[in-house]
Structures are given as C-alpha cells and as structure tokens.
Fold this sequence. Notes:
Blueprint: H1 2-46, E1 68-74, E2 79-85, H2 89-92, E3 96-98, E4 110-114, E5 132-137, E6 140-153, E7 167-174, E8 184-196
Parallel strand pairs: 2-3, 4-7
Antiparallel strand pairs: 1-2, 1-5, 3-4, 5-6, 6-8, 7-8
Amino acid sequence: MVFLIFSVVIIVAGVFLFATNGKKLWDGQHVTEEAPKVMKKEVVQKEKPQPSPKQQVQYDEQPEVGEEIGTLTIPAISSTLPIIHGTNEDELAKGVGHYAGSVLPGMDDNSVLSGHRDTVFRKLGDVGKGDLLEVETRAGLFTYRVNKVRIVDKDDRTVIVPKPRATLTVSTCYPFYYVGPAPKRYILVATLVEKDTTKHWSKAS
C-alpha cells in the first residue's frame, strides 16, 4: 500500500515538472521568435527621417544704398510704405530707411528700420504691443509681432544691438509733436512669427 502511494506521488510530481518545463520552453521559444520583430520595429523607428533644421533666409545679393528693397505694411494704421536701403537723409526722404549695418528683413538677428515722424511714421504712435508688421522683399513675406515698445534717448545704441532670433526694430523721433529736433526715439521691437518665401516683392515699374 505504501509502495502504491509512493508510486502515485512520483507520477504526479513527474507530470507537474513536465508541464512546468514545457510551458517555460514554449515561452522561451515564443520570446525568441518575437525578439527579431521587436528589434526590427525599433530599427525602423530609429531610421525614421528627422525634420530638417530651420533654413536661413537667403538674399541673392546685398542691395546698394538708395535702392528700394521692399515694403513695410502696418495693418493697425492701414499703411504700406517703401523700404529704402540706407538711413541718410536722401533715403529717408523716399520712405522707410533700412539701417545698412543690420541684417536684411527675414534673416536671423536684428533688422533695423527708421523713418521720420512727420512723414512715413506720422501715426506710428498708434502702433503698440501685439500689433503686426509685415515686410515683403525679394526673399519673401515676413510677418513680425510687436512685443515691446521703448522710448529711449536719441543716442541710445541698444536699438541696433544683435538679437538671438529674427527681430525687426522700427524707430522714429519722439515726442511726435515736438517742435524742433526731438530728443528721444520711439521704438517698436518685433519678433518674426511667420515667413512665406514663396512670395517675392518686385519694384513697381
């Protein structure tokens, strides 16, 4: 009787061990078959092309002083003005002057525009934070949003300092109704929010 019980126990234990080892063997084979699929999926994900880096705006050539290079549109005051390369009196008499020592509009860094308060920028005081400035040149259409308004001394050189991102700085004399040479400058500082390089300005004939 004891021998019969012992034999049954041995058989049951053998069946249990066989079932356990068989499951482990199946699981191991299943993992081995799935591993290449997982690795292949990871490889595909790694090989997925990454977005190309931001492209810098390009101009074919540097304009000559006195040359018209585009337009400045200020929707807040319903004004579209010609931009002339240079900020001497001859250029400012024709429109908005682009400071030749700064980058051209749309490019990274600080592009500086200036104009007379009694001609092109007569209503610039009505333009403030949040308003848009649109510049169209041969390189494209560039939209900036004003994020800062400054009033500085006329000799303040911080207006033309380099910037870490595409910036448009617009300057005119201040106060607007001052009699004689104004002692200060009204400054709009705007950052690039949109660019469309499929649109190209051309000078009207």
